């Protein structure tokens, strides 16, 4: 996943922001290509966790950003892709019937990436990172041994 926290002077640089936006778009396209390479029944839990987290961060950033309306249909498609990732994680193996939902979500993520601001993306990343750390702490305490759940930040 290509989303990361940077220092303020880098975040204010418009060229650095556009470069990072382009890198994120490339990563989303690479994830889509990798998805088509998976075979039915193949173990891919880690890949789906990363993909689901990426979609969650972009969805959260779109929720935060005032340029994206809360009733934007792209957000529903994004949430559908997150749900499909979660179903694959729960099953433990790849299900090719989920490919369309995830690919459509990745397409919408690429489109939303063009609209959301760097500040919104940064806030969403930090929010999801905080949530992830809390979940890891809780899972260490409970040690349930069950499948991970993508905590959608959206």
Low-confidence parts: none
Biggest pleated-sheet summary: none
Beta-strand segment tally: 0
CA-to-CA gap between the ends?
Answer: 18 Å
Bulk shape = globular
Estimate the mean pLDDT confidence.
82
Radius of gyration from the alpha-carbon trace, in angstroms: 16 Å
**Which structural class fits the helix and strand makeup?**
mainly alpha
Share of helix, binned: over 70%
Following the backbone from N to C, one meets helices and strands in this order, namely HHHHHH
As for the number of domains, it is 1
Strand content: under 5%
Count of helical segments? 6
Can you describe this structure?
The protein has 154 residues and is an all-alpha fold. It has one domain (8-135). The protein is 71% helix and 0% strand. The chain contains 6 helices and no strands. Helix 2 (14-37) runs antiparallel to helix 5 and helix 3 crosses helix 6 (118-142). The model has no long low-confidence stretch (mean pLDDT 82).
């Amino acid at each position: 996943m290509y989303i990361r926290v940077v220092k303020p002077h880098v975040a204010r640089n418009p060229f650095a922001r556009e470069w990072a936006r382009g890198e994120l778009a490339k990563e989303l396209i690479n994830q889509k290509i990798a998805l088509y390479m998976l075979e039915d029944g193949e173990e891919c839990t880690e890949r789906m966790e990363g993909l689901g987290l990426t979609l969650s961060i972009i969805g959260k950033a779109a929720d935060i950003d005032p340029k994206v309306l809360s009733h934007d249909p792209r957000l529903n498609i994004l949430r559908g892709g997150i749900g499909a990732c979660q179903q694959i994680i729960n099953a433990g193996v790849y299900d090719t019937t989920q490919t369309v939902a995830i690919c459509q979500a990745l397409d919408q993520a690429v489109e939303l990436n063009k609209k959301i601001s760097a500040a919104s993306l940064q806030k969403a990343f930090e929010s999801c990172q905080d949530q992830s750390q809390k979940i890891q702490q809780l899972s260490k305490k409970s040690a349930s041994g069950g499948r991970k759940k993508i905590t959608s930040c959206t």
